[in-house]
Protein: Pyridoxal phosphate-dependent transferase
Amino acid sequence: MNTTLPDHDFHNKWGTILGVTELDQRPLATALWKEYWKDPINVERNYDKILARYTDEFVAFFKGILPISFHGHGTDAMSPTTIASMFLRLAIFAKQSDPDAIIISTPEDRPSAIEQLGWNAAQVGNPQWAVVKDSYAAGFGPLATLSAQPAFRDITTGAGATSLQLVNRTKQELSERLRTARQEGCIGVIVEIVNNQYSGRVTTPAEMSKLSEACAENGLLLVVDETVTSIRCGAPFAHQRPEYGGMRPPDLVIFGKALAVSGIGINFEGSVARRLGISTNKHRRQAILNWQTCVTQAVQTPVLINALGVLEMAKAGDWVRRSRVIGEHLRETVRSRAGSMFDGLEESEIFGGLGSFLFVKIEVSGIFLVMGASNAGPWVRWVRWLPRMDEHMTSRSTVESILGPASLPHRRERARQLAVQELRPEWCFWCGNHAQNQVLDWCRECCIHVCNTEECSAQLIAHKCLTE
Ligand SMILES: [Zn+2]
Ligand SMILES: [Zn+2]
Structure:
């Protein structure tokens, strides 16, 4: 069976697989892959050119935001000490008379960079983040302290982070809160457009505008975490949707997952980044290279080629437009099928998220026998749907068939393939966690399985198989 056929996997490895129907529309990446397979040394010799080409594509796709730093995981990219060092380095670089020269350190460099950034001693010595409440939280490190998951809070390290309430706060209240946080070492605020921990609530344009003003007033970095929301929320980055046009531009954007590489994007027009005075395109490219070369190779070549391929495919298939269409099809189909379940309920009690990043109430998601992705834990009654941006998903009838009995032939065939390989469906059809139940047998008709919890086990036993 063709692996590009539509199927009921809305998990896609936590959203890291964004599309497969454009695999033959990434000429640059494909040519580099072939060459790398034959002669890796020659491709490595061209590394600088490949990185420059990737940067060109990234800047064009993400409207002027430059990829400055690459990391193994989004959480690593958000380390406050890493980002504080990066800004010190940029401030020192900006004053160099010859930007191509290797930095020659003078005794004035550090104090003058700190002054340029307007940072106090706590911000340099003990940099921390404020994070919008109920929004992003890490699985480890200082930001794990804000996680809804107790097992993550248990391994919190470092200075922690400030939880910032954004809902129902005036700009003055936000600004005052941030002024206090700044004295304790806060260097900026991390916010998500789609709050990922609970119900997928969307941060409103008014909230983003207030937050961006409060950050600017206090000289704090505004960081938008777009690890999950890039491309699939109806804009290159979700904060670039037209309704957010009134906010000040963020200084940094964290990317990862679907882009095939994690890292930090910088917007030199951000309120803090502007203080660096790096204003021409040429100077900006020199600046990001300066940071990249300070940590040996910025990103490994095969990862870079893969990431380049994702941008080529996203452009060729217009995945941004598709994300709006696919999200709409999914919502409409769910609404029409779930019928009376919605009676008396507000839209926000059924769906969260934006575009093709959907949060669906667990009892509603469950009736469609698809594989979604869990979030902070079993007490969160929402499942995330992270469908692929494949071409066939833009057809309403295809989406309807996946969510209904017409998917049965595909499901049976998928189940047969899995059985041959001694595999099982990977994700619990009810809660979206790993489907590792060893007691129950999985359903080879619907191609679904469950995790170990009592609730999900009962749902597998009780489910009615799809019938043609
Ligand atoms: Zn489960
Ligand atoms: Zn079944």
